[in-house]
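Narrative summary of target 7.
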Amino acid sequence: MTNANYSRALIFSGGNLGGWALSRICPDDYLIGADRGALFLTRQGRAPHLAVGDFDSISQNELDLVRSAAAETLAFDAVDKDWTDTELAVKEAIARGFRDIVVIGGLGTRFDHSLANVHLLNAAAEAGCRAILVDEHNEIRLLAAGITERLEADSQYPYVSLLPLTPAVTGITLQGFKYPLTDATITIGMSLGVSNELAEPCGSIRIGSGKLLVVRSRD
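Modeled conformation, tokenized:
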């Protein structure tokens, strides 16, 4: 089967995973397991189309289990590789032609890895891809200038926060929100965009310049 048979790449990373993550899988998703994420998929009876990483967080027996289940496995040396397992998975998804990428389990107890994975949203955007980070409590995407992001009210993620990824984001306009903005500017360190909510069934976000993280979340 070619990638044309799949609508998006779903990457399971080694962060916080659980039963909620499996509910994100659609029949036409291309499943990529990054290191321990591949083991999670395998143990849940969802064979990865691709398993990738250095696999230093699982045992040899567990790796053998992954290899037997996955359609394809790309193993890298833990010392010689220059990228995290999640970044390797994102790079593979991009190289295989996917333009819609969802990273599940990219957020966890390691803040450095979590922050690095947030930055992967920018790398994906620069490659012409739309990427989203998802966990049980958060959904994070990147908005660039000239693009209108439309959000529907979602009881699972009722809060919407806006955080600049660039030093400043200008021309921020919110419609359909409890706290609307018109042509506003938010710079790094400002909390102006934190914890907003939709006031209507559908809202929109548009910016004039910069790059903006849109974080939908729940407690």
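The CA atoms of residues 47 and 69 lie 5 Å apart.
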